[in-house]
Amino acid sequence: MTSDPTEEAFRDLMATFASGVTVVTSRAGEQDGGMTVSAFFSVTLDPPRVVVSLALAADTTPLVERSGLFAVNLLREEQRDLSARFADRVPPPQKFEGLTLDRGVGGVPLLKDTLGALECRTEARIPAGDHALFLGRVIGVRPGRPGRPLVYWDRDYRELKATVGVSPRREGGP
């Protein structure tokens, strides 16, 4: 066991953990923003709440801070291109160029053809080093297209394979 973990050791171990891929979007004034996020999880069912971890240096973070609104767009495995687009450090208008969007509460952009989107109102902002955690109250659920989630594991995108006789929504799962 390492008592003082190096950044490399931390990254290597975190690469062993599979995560779903989302794009968090927001809007403040007339400015849209979006960024790829894998650090996202549900917190409570009653009332429904989620947490997203946003880099302080990202252009989307100040929009979430100003508007108090964000959406979590759950990507389908065919949407690697959207993940890459919103992970790029390019001006926000370029990220949305050519995309057809829906608009949620406060005009927050909702990406089309995703598994769905959660529209959220910020309830708390928690400082976390070079990131901030945003606790969001889910104020809207937008179902999308059925499919398999985009998964990131071992520093690459992966596909889920169906197992014969196992339902993807089996009872007793997490």
Properties at a glance:
174 residues; Pnp Oxidase, Chain A; seven-stranded antiparallel beta sheet; three-stranded antiparallel beta sheet
Strand content: 35-45%
Give the strand order, joined by hyphens, for the main sheet.
Answer: 3-2-6-9-10-5-4
Structural category is alpha+beta
The H-and-E topology, N to C, reads as: HEEEEEHEHHEEEEEE
Separation of termini?
A: 29 Å
CATH topology: Pnp Oxidase, Chain A
Q: Can you tell me the CATH superfamily? A: Electron Transport, Fmn-binding Protein, Chain A
Rg on CA atoms, Å? 17 Å
Spans of at least 5 consecutive residues whose pLDDT stays below 50 are none
Q: Estimate the helix proportion, in percent.
A: 10-25%
Task: Let me know the largest β-sheet.
Answer: 7 strands, antiparallel
Summed up, the helix count is 4
Tally of strands: 12
**CATH-level-2 architecture:** Roll
Mean pLDDT across residues: 90
CATH class: Mainly Beta
Query: How many separate domains make up the residues?
Result: 1
Q: What general outline do the C-alpha atoms trace?
A: globular
Short description:
With 174 residues, this protein is α+β, with helices and mostly antiparallel strands.
Describe the protein in words.
The chain is α+β, with helices and mostly antiparallel strands. The protein has one domain (24-154): Electron Transport, Fmn-binding Protein, Chain A (Pnp Oxidase, Chain A, Roll). 16% of the residues lie in helices and 43% in strands. The chain has helices spanning 7-14, 61-67, 80-87, 92-96, and strands at residues 19-20, 22-28, 31-37, 40-45, 48-55, 69-74, 101-103, 109-111, 116-128, 131-143, 151-153, 156-158. Strands 3-2-6-9-10-5-4 form a seven-stranded antiparallel beta sheet. A three-stranded antiparallel beta sheet has the order 1-11-12, with no helix packed on it. It has a two-stranded antiparallel ribbon with strand order 7-8. The longest helix is centred in the first third of the chain and has 8 residues, at 7-14.
